[in-house]
Amino acid sequence: MTPAASSSKSLGAAFSPLSALLRAEDADKLSSIIRAVANCDRLELVDRLAQSMSRGKRVQAYVLNAALTAKGIPPVFRYPDFYPSADDVNQKNDLFMYDMQWLERTCGFHVKKIRFARYRDMFTPILTKFCNAADYVFYEGRRPAWRIVASLALEEDMQHDCMWLRSEPIKKKHEFISHYEGAVKRALKADLDRVTRSSIFTEDDAKNSLERRFALWVCSQMTHGKPTATAKRYEQMTGQSMNRHIAFSQLKKIKIATKKISLRP
Fold first, then answer.
1. 18 and 47 share a domain?
2. How many helices (H) and strands (E) does the chain have?
3. Distance of CA 67 to CAs 35, 160, 201, Å?
4. What are phi and psi of 94, to 5 degrees?
5. CA 96 to CA 142: how far, in whole Å?
6. Of 101, 133, 165, which closes a domain?
7. How confident is the model over 175-204, as pLDDT tens digits?
8. Model confidence over 98-112: pLDDT tens digits?
9. Range of 91's domain?
10. What's the structural domain count of the chain?
11. The pLDDT value given to residue 87
């Protein structure tokens, strides 16, 4: 959950915009590949994405991110075992493009709230137009994420969907999640260890419960603990549906299990 953050160090790196690589591709062929790749399992896509990004295969990573967007998986849940660099301007550019790709696909209604035309121009399915506008907005890494967020008037939920486009408060919230995830996992495990194992509640059941409750805790941090919103986030994160009543019940258990932890922002 560690966020990629804006850093002045990145401005000294050689900048090579993702848009230049995408313009060299046939847009129709790229769209066809994205549609085909979107049929793959989400876990396979996430694994392939981490490999592509770590190896610097930027167009391939763009395709995989587009496929994950098509499957309804926001950028925030695409990097469970891979942490994008905070000091690489090219990687930040890629994350920015993926975030905008997601917002364009899922938040088209938001365009009316955006004041500046060049920012509105990113909300288009036309790749060349999207790239031109994105290049202007990113400004070779000189424009920080929080300023772009402000100009886009992104709401809190939209920022939580993103990996890089976050204001300082949302960025700090994700740093908070990352900082406390170990302590929360230990507290949840300790609570489950007190439950007697039986044919009804096996060791595998305990492991599954731990994974589910930890995921719910993460999601609840993005939703102010609201059961319905948390259940929706949980489905985005795991691919498993959950109704608000189960989410409410589980969140109560999580609160009890973690009450002794000093969770400070």
1. yes
2. 13, 0
3. 7, 19, 37
4. -65, -45
5. 13
6. 165
7. 999 999 999 999 999 999 999 999 999 999
8. 999 999 999 999 999
9. 8-165
10. 2
11. 75
